[in-house]
């Protein structure tokens, strides 16, 4: 039995403290005022509170696990390495995005050329900066209309598609239990938003001609400044909100480090009103709805520039289109993934969803505007098969876990009764919960075979661009780092949550991504 006690340490301490009679909002304000004092005491308080909470449980073993459970989720105490990484990311991530987009705009997508020309003195940082398109009010208007429209669709158009599309799960759905034991409700209407947005896009391109289908490409860098403004604004707002009016104080998580709090977030599920959920909105829209539109805009640009669209551009549009549609088709399932279930909302998600995702996940299409690659039939087929096989593994693995968890193990996986490991954990409110870890199907092959499928698909997008430049391969490098890091952090969390049961699971399924290798 394991005590899963992530956020109880601080909130549990506050609620039982001398200010327990004041309203919740004042408590969080008081929390802010006391934060300096608490920083020094935080780890002691954390351990003490966890210990006290553990002692309240009937099972004496709990206190032993409680000491470990302070490690749950994102860090409570930030080591130097994490701090330096966080500060470096906060400073350099916007420049990384700028570098890639600028390399396409000014250096024909060569990653090395800007550095070489800087080295030989052919250009200067100032001349590169001066040549980059600057902020424009017309781009700001486009961006404001875009985000405003997505907010409108998200908040004001309840889902009807689940009523007439068989098998689709939409409308109001429950999220996973939060660490404090709450279950939030979500309006799942992402597929509908995507369909309406794309129907309007095609209606415009075919009939209305309000704007050019190349509008996104034509304003790409000015739009990037707007996306940055929104990304920083929303992250800063979420940061301040967590101190002043958190949606759910029990689910807030503070460390003693302001940079870490800003980057990794404090609030778990910040909301405005009953339905505007920051995580669902910024994770799902506007970035992911835009992904396919951005690719369509690149395709239109190729057509405009060269009078033809290459098979590589079609492949990128199709494979990434499947991935995006899959995301919206399974949006209710997505509520149970790490982003929504375990990550707090900070700059990492806020800025990442506004800037990193739309700008770096679409680099292949951007590259193909500058380098229209026409693959041989055999290469195109190989890329298509790799992409589809990756998608199949990614989707089937996710589906197996979902099926298994929804039916509490009463289902068949690969035609047989599934094998699994029984485990238990405690939530912050002290409640004991049971869970099961699947060890058959793809989950018996490796502990994160869904990531392996995702990586195969990612490689296919890059391979569609041929071998002329490394820029389109940034995606597979990034996804490998992201998913390997995600494996490690998820397993760290699961190990704290399930304790010895997790060890039994890793003994049964020893590899993470590739059997026999890693
Ligand atoms: P998973 O869907 O693998 O979820 C991990 C969680 O599943 C664990 O925390 C644990 O949660 C539970 N779990 C772990 N092992 C088992 C098991 N054997 N049986 C049952 N449950 C288990 O991870 P993600 O949420 O990270 O990813 C979801 C998908 O999204 C993946 O396919 C990934 O590739 C994709 N993704 C894509 C990204 C992109 O940018 N394109 C970014 C991130 C993810 P619990 O506490 O409930 O036990």
TrEMBL record:
In terms of Gene3D superfamilies, this protein maps to:
1.20.120.1630
Transmembrane stretches, start-end: 80-102, 138-157, 305-325, 345-363, 375-394, 458-484
- Top enzyme category: oxidoreductase
Q: Subcellular location, in the record's words?
A: Endoplasmic reticulum membrane
Q: Which family does it belong to?
A: Belongs to the ERG4/ERG24 family.
Protein's name according to its UniProt entry: 7-dehydrocholesterol reductase
CC terms in the record's Gene Ontology section: endoplasmic reticulum membrane
E.C. designation(s): 1.3.1.21
Q: Could you tell me which species this protein originates from?
A: Oryzias latipes
């Amino acid at each position: 039995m394991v005590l899963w006690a992530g956020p109880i340490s601080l909130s549990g301490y506050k609620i039982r403290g001398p200010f327990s009679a004041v309203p919740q909002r004042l408590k969080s304000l008081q929390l802010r005022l006391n934060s300096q004092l608490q920083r020094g005491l935080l780890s002691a308080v954390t351990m003490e509170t966890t210990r006290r909470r553990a002692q309240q449980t009937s099972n004496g073993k709990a206190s032993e696990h409680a000491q470990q459970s302070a490690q749950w989720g994102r860090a409570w105490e930030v080591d130097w390495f994490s701090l330096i990484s966080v500060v470096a990311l906060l400073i350099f991530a916007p420049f990384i995005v700028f570098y890639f987009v600028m390399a396409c705009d000014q250096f024909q997508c060569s990653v090395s050329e800007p550095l070489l020309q800087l080295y030989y003195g052919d250009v200067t940082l100032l001349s590169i900066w001066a040549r980059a398109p600057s902020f424009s009010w017309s781009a700001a208007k486009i961006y404001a209309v875009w985000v405003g429209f997505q907010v409108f669709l998200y908040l004001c158009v309840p889902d009807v598609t689940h009523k007439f599309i068989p098998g689709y799960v939409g409308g109001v759905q429950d999220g996973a239990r939060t660490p404090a034991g709450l279950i939030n409700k979500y309006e799942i209407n992402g597929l509908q938003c995507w369909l309406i947005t794309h129907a309007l896009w095609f209606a415009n391109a075919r009939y209305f001609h309000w704007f050019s289908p190349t509008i996104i490409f034509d304003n790409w860098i000015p739009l990037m400044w707007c996306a940055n403004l929104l990304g920083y604004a929303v992250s800063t707002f979420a940061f301040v909100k967590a101190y002043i009016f958190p949606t759910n104080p029990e689910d807030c998580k503070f460390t003693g480090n302001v940079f870490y709090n800003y980057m990794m977030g404090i609030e778990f599920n910040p909301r405005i009103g009953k339905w505007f959920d920051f995580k669902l909105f910024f994770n799902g829209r506007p970035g992911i709805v835009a992904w396919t539109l951005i690719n369509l805009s690149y395709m239109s640009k190729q057509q405009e520039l060269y009078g033809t669209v290459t098979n590589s551009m079609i492949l990128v549009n199709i494979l990434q289109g499947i991935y995006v549609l899959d995301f919206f088709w399974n949006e209710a399932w997505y509520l149970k993934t790490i982003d929504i279930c375990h990550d707090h909302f900070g700059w990492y998600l806020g800025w990442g969803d506004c800037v990193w995702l739309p700008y770096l996940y679409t680099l292949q299409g951007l590259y193909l505007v500058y380098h229209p690659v026409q693959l041989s039939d055999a290469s195109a087929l190989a890329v298509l098969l790799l992409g589809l096989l990756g998608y199949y593994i990614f989707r089937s693995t996710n589906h197996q876990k979902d099926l298994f968890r929804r039916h509490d193990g009463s289902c068949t996986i690969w035609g047989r009764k599934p094998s699994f490991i029984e485990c238990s954990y405690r939530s912050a409110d002290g409640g004991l919960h049971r869970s099961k870890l699947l060890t058959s199907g793809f989950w018996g092959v490796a502990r994160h075979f869904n990531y392996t499928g995702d990586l195969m698909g990612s490689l296919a997008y890059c391979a569609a661009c041929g071998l002329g430049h490394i820029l389109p391969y940034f995606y597979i490098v990034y996804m490998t780092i992201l998913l390997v890091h995600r494996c490690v952090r998820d397993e760290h969390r699961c190990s704290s949550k399930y304790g010895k049961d997790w060890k039994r699971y890793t003994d049964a399924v020893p590899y993470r991504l590739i059997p026999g290798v890693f």
